[in-house]
Amino acid sequence: MLNKDYSELNLESIPNIAGKEVFIIVSTWNKKITDKLYEGAKFVLENKKCIIKKVKVPGSFELVYACKKALIKKPHAIIAIGCIVKGDTPHFDFISSSVANGISQLNLKGEVPVVFGVITANNYQQAVERCEGFSYKNKGVEAAVTAISMINFTV
Questions:
Q1: Where are the domains of the chain?
Q2: pLDDT digit string (tens) for 65-121?
Q3: 114 with 82: CB under 8 angstroms?
Q4: pLDDT digits (tens, 9 = 90+) for 131-140
Q5: How crowded is residue 20: how many other Cβ atoms within 10 Å of its Cβ?
Q6: What confidence tens digit (pLDDT) does each residue in 115-135 have?
Q7: Which helix H or strand E contains 120, and what residues bound it?
Q8: Which of 15, 91, 126, 152 is catalytic?
Q9: In sequence order, which residues have a C-beta less than 8 Å from that of residue 57 and are 6 or more positions away?
């Protein structure tokens, strides 16, 4: 469903998931970015009549723990939203890797799809470019569409 040229979102092409529950776990670190990511995800999910539960955590590192706790509630999907911007120390590498691996481990359990809606950017401007508007360019929109695809996923 993701269009590589970041074309505008076509909501009619996305299946309805009315009544399905999705937890959106949002890091408040880099809040200007994560708020826009959340708004993008919320826009798509509300349009598809989904039940949204928003949970805030301090940083991206805490996303994994919150997602694990959200699994107990048995939602239909979980979206982890965060923004990690590279700095002058290796902190970026440790946090990015830990979050990606943690979310990967939760997915391997196979209980509920956990979508990686985390921007990892070399600089703040790159992060800004991935959170604008209501198109696939917004990583939150992309994460919501992915969550819907995974809710409807069958083998």
A1: 19-151
A2: 999 999 999 999 999 999 999 988 888 889 999 999 999 999 998 889 999 999 999
A3: no
A4: 987 777 899 9
A5: 19
A6: 999 999 999 999 999 998 777
A7: strand 114-121
A8: 91
A9: 25, 26, 27, 28, 63, 65, 66
Give catalytic status of residue 76 as yes or no: no
Class (C level, CATH) for 19-151: alpha beta
How far apart CA 115 and CA 86 sit, in angstroms, is 22
Cα dihedral: 102, 107, 112, 113 (round 10): 100
Residue 155: its pLDDT value, please?
56
Instruction: Give the CA-trace dihedral at 132, 58, 20, 18, to 10 degrees.
Output: -30
Nearest alpha carbon to residue 130 among 145, 140, 115: 140
Q: Is the torsion defined by CA of 128, 56, 51, 116 positive or negative?
A: positive
